[in-house]
Amino acid sequence: MRITSISLLLFVACSHVFAGEGWDRLQKAKDAFSESQKKQEATFRSDVAAALLHATHCEVYLLDFEMSDVIEDSPFKDYPSDASYFPIRPYRRESKILKRTEVKGVELQNLLPTLAAVIGVTQNTYGAFCHNPIHGIRVYEGTLLLLETSFCYSCSNFYMTYPYSGSHWVGMRNADFEKALSAIMPIPEPKNTKVKKP
What we know:
This protein is of the alpha+beta class. The chain has one domain (about 45-195): 2-Layer Sandwich (Dna Ligase, domain 1). About 40% of the residues lie in helices and about 25% in strands. It contains four helices and seven strands, in the order H-E-E-E-H-E-E-E-E-H-H. It has a seven-stranded antiparallel β-sheet, sandwiched between helices.
């Protein structure tokens, strides 16, 4: 009986050792995948930023700051989701469009370098774990949509839609961009107070 008990203890101990080694190997594989994905996402953002410099026009939106409930039957496979609403894709929600304006010519050329610097950020800080959209933008080269995203200045983030992996948050650290977009689409009171950082 004693030999059986000792054998059982040894078996359990060995199982934990082997399981631990297996877990380490699996975790290493997951970490490598995560790092590779971060690099691919950074490269994609950089390439999109470069493409933005060839844009012919864009639309800037003033959004409602609030979002709808989660849309179970998501209409976000194509754009726009609705003429009156702007998609907040990572949350599968949308925000009401209060106002819109088209930007082109010199005004567009002044905006694009700042926008490209925001989108092409190498290190993703993700921003806060929230998003209260106040500005939205769609950038085009001819009829081709180059970029669609919303911006939250209090949470310091925007979303990026990646090929095959959906839309995810990207951290934003560029006060010049907030000023540039607000000059094109001013944020009225009282919404202006909501986007200020405490």
